[in-house]
Task: structure prediction
Amino acid sequence: MSEDARTILDVEPGTYDAVSHLKIQVNKAVEGFQGGAHRSLHMGPSVEFSEHNRYSPGDDIRNIDWKALARTDRYFIKAHEREAQLSCLLLLDCSGSMSYRGSRSRFSKFDFAKILLGAFSHLLMKQGDAVGVIGFAETQNVLSPPKSHPGHLPVLMERLAAEPVQEQCRTGFSGVLKSAQARLGHRGMLVLASDMWQLDAEAEVILKGLVKKGHDVSVFHVVSPDELDLPFDRMVEFVGLEREPSVRLEPALIRHNYMNAMAAERERLFAVARSARIDMLSAVTSRELFEVLAEFATRRLKGRK
Result:
């Protein structure tokens, strides 16, 4: 890339290694996904009818709009079909807790989410859809508004790779969801990659409102396996990543109660998603990324049958 291009993109030194790494991991995820039973995410362009004509003898009766007939008692032909481009916003949680990696994962939650959203961008744009990304924690950073032209993907990848964790910052769900709602406007798709640990009642209401307005909302609940079962076998100092105080504990003494509380909170989050008709998947960072994409695609395919 030229120096001029680097200046225009305002990319920090060292970003190109990060971009290369992100592209490699995204390509692995995409290749693994497409090497299985799936070829797309099953949410490509939908068909809209931009015009109706009065039926005339000789017109193909297969094009009669039967719903229009029921409403008006007149025969109309659906004309000028066009594909409606999907507009998708990807939301990346950049809060402090996303920096955790643990002992059993190759990636931190943050890097796992980046690769997942990068692969998502790749697949959606290959289908001709417009994709944009917002990074958020206590503040928001619009990495890229939704665009579909071929040159958009490399720029999106560079900005995604360069986006840092907002150290010691909490997650501001309500603000970014309101912003996403305003940016999507008409019916679109929203994909959130987050550990979801500070989802409050206001944010739940906004998510449900997005679905009611016709938006397609999906959530990847990104967690480390360490968060699920607290595997540590000796005294540990737990350091708060979002301004919580540090705590020194013997894990064995709290593991049972912790796991019960964790299971209950995850069940609550999934119950909220089910009640709002939000597609929520568990994205544990020890999983292969293409497996997460394949699970998502399978759900989408079943939902269309």
